[in-house]
Fold:
Amino acid sequence: MRMNSSQIKHFDYIFTGTGLSALMTVYKMVLSGKFNDKSILLLDENQKKTNDRTWCFWIKEETIWNSIISKKWDSALFANENFKRNMALIPYQYCQIKGLDFYNFVFDILSKNSNITFSIERVTDINELESHVFVGTEANRFTCDYLFNSIYTKALAQNQTQYPVLQQHFIGWFVKTETEIFNPEEAIFMDFSVEQKGNTRFMYILPVSKTEALIEYTLFSENLLQTEEYENAIQNYLHQLGAKQFEIVEKERGSIPMTCYPFWKKNTKRVLNIGTAGGWTKASTGYTFRNSDKKSSQLVDFLQKENFKMSSFHKKNRFWFYDLLLLDILHRNNELGSSIFSSLFKKGDPALIFKFLDEETNIMEDLRVILKCPKTLFIKTLLQIIFR
Ligand SMILES: Cc1cc2nc3c(=O)[nH]c(=O)nc-3n(C[C@H](O)[C@H](O)[C@H](O)COP(=O)(O)OP(=O)(O)OC[C@H]3O[C@@H](n4cnc5c(N)ncnc54)[C@H](O)[C@@H]3O)c2cc1C
Structure:
């Protein structure tokens, strides 16, 4: 760290927001050993000492997060009011990491590196100048050569009409029941048997034992609900499963933006948006962990290149367009979600669907997935997007 004439502290890199994407990136910078001479400031308004979220993702290989995975499932269930499908996920496994375990794991390593400073401060101002970036907080002023921002500005996507914006919104209860009603060997990805009420609504369940599970009432739709609507739905579902008595051990809630809005267009010479703020959330699903894992690795490699240009970090691909298609349909006809996901999961190969969502399929494989969806609907929407 060096001081300039007006005693504003200067860093090589500042991260505004120190959540998933920032911590993944800085942790990998440390692992690489190539950034030991860089001064790095991490700013967050939150201490990151609570279990504020649970991340799930699928993998088929070992990852650097293995030691903090709290549960893995080899199979998953998809259901609607007419059918249930138990799916073996091999060669993938569906994995869960608790937010607090992730924060503790990464901060433990970061605290051993004297070039990295974590400061709990609310960022109020980011201003890019020719030779540096200025960052103001409620208590301090800083400058840096490069800034990585994961503070999500909702207005960016909301105040435009070109790209539809849905939310993956949910409330989750981690419950303990008196009776054994869960199957800990199987995650429930999507249970659409709940009333749809003109939306895309489903239950998502992560059972860790026969009497313990995280149950989330989830919607892919534009507007949030009143708290009691999510909670009544969870309660009704638990009663249907046969839970007479249960204890709510923990609650979580989320509203994850699902949009193809090109956040990366806000990247500049010295400021790179990362995480959800940078478009690292998979628009059609809201999943962000896996994408952030990949993008943070790419970013750490990218920063080691000579004369890198931050604005060229992001590369748009055809999967962005596929996501746009689905979001366009769900935005116009939100009630169709259940039938679209049902046609995909009724006969689709789960491993291929994961590969597709990971954006690792080739064009022939893309078609095998897409052709499982209602064809006329997708072709009609495709034409509407092209000719609008
Ligand atoms: C409850 C929940 C469950 C989720 N489950 C999954 C899942 O199972 N799988 C999956 O892939 N994704 C999941 N997600 C989506 C996504 O993975 C997370 O939202 C993820 O944390 C996004 O990473 P990020 O770095 O973009 O943002 P964050 O991790 O939210 O980090 C942003 C940071 O910025 C800080 N901040 C905000 N404003 C300011 C300010 N003005 N000054 C200073 N700091 C500020 C916040 O405190 C936060 O720490 C979930 C999200 C939620 C909310």
